[in-house]
Design goal:
This is Poly-beta-hydroxybutyrate polymerase. It comes from Bradyrhizobium diazoefficiens. This protein has ten helices and five strands. The chain has helices spanning 17-22, 30-37, 42-50, 56-66, 71-85, 92-104, 142-145, 148-151, 168-171, 175-190, and strands spanning 4-7, 114-115, 118-119, 129-134, 157-162. Strand 2 and strand 3 form a beta hairpin. The longest helix has 16 residues, at 175-190.
C-alpha cells in the first residue's frame, strides 16, 4: 500500500456514546444474538442507525412531500434513500468480534488488537495517511476519531476537518467542492 485515506474513522469506541449505550455488555448479549440468528439482518443495522436520530426518517419524508414536484429533489432523494437502505446482512461472527474487541474492550485504541493472530497496532502504519473527519458527524463523533493521526506511525500524516455529516462528507452535494479537491491535491503529491 502506498497511501492511506480514512474517512471519519473511530478508534476510541468509548466515545461512540449512543452505540456504546446500544451495545452495553450489561444489557446486550451479543453471543445470544449471533448464536440465535447468525448473520445480522439489514433491518437491524438500519434500525440502529435510525435510533441515533429517531425523527430523521420522518423529517426526510416530509421534505420529500414538500418537494414532490421538484424533479431534481425527488431524483436526489431516491438515489440517496436507495444507497442508505440497500444494506446487506452483516456476518454474525464479524459482528460478535467488533462488538467485543472494539465496542467493549476498545482494543484498537488500547493497542491490544490482533488480526489473524498478529498484533495490529496503528503505530505500525508507516505509509502517508490523510484522515478526513466531518464537523457535524452524528455517527462517529470527533472525540471517537481524533486520536487516529496521533497513533499512526507515519511521518507523513494529516487530518482535515470539513463541514458536513458522516455521509455528506463523501456523498453529499458539497463533497465535490469540499472533500474531492483536498483528495485530489493530497493524492496528487503522493501518487507519482
Amino acid at each position: 500500500m502506498k497511501n492511506l485515506i480514512c474517512f471519519t474513522t473511530p478508534i476510541d469506541f468509548r466515545e461512540m456514546k449512543l452505540f456504546s449505550n446500544f451495545s452495553d455488555r450489561r444489557y446486550f448479549d451479543v453471543d445470544r444474538l449471533v448464536d440465535s440468528i447468525g448473520n445480522v439482518p439489514p433491518e437491524m443495522i438500519l434500525s440502529s442507525f435510525e435510533m441515533l436520530r429517531p425523527a430523521s426518517r420522518t423529517v426526510s419524508q416530509i421534505q420529500l412531500w414538500e418537494n414532490i414536484w421538484n424533479d431534481e429533489f425527488v431524483k436526489s432523494y431516491r438515489m440517496f434513500d436507495r444507497w442508505a437502505t440497500d444494506t446487506l446482512p452483516l456476518a454474525g461472527e464479524y459482528f460478535r468480534t467488533i462488538t467485543k474487541d472494539l465496542m467493549w474492550d476498545n482494543k484498537l485504541f488500547n493497542d491490544t488488537m490482533s488480526v489473524g493472530g498478529r498484533a495490529a497496532k496503528l503505530e505500525d502504519i508507516k505509509v502517508p495517511i490523510l484522515h478526513a473527519v466531518a464537523e457535524h458527524d452524528h455517527i462517529v463523533p470527533y472525540d471517537a476519531a481524533k486520536h487516529l493521526i496521533a497513533k499512526i506511525g507515519s511521518a507523513d500524516k494529516e487530518e482535515v476537518m470539513l463541514k458536513g455529516g458522516h455521509v455528506s462528507l463523501v456523498a453529499g452535494a458539497n463533497a465535490v467542492k469540499r472533500l474531492w479537491p483536498k483528495l485530489d491535491s493530497w493524492l496528487g503529491k503522493r501518487s507519482t
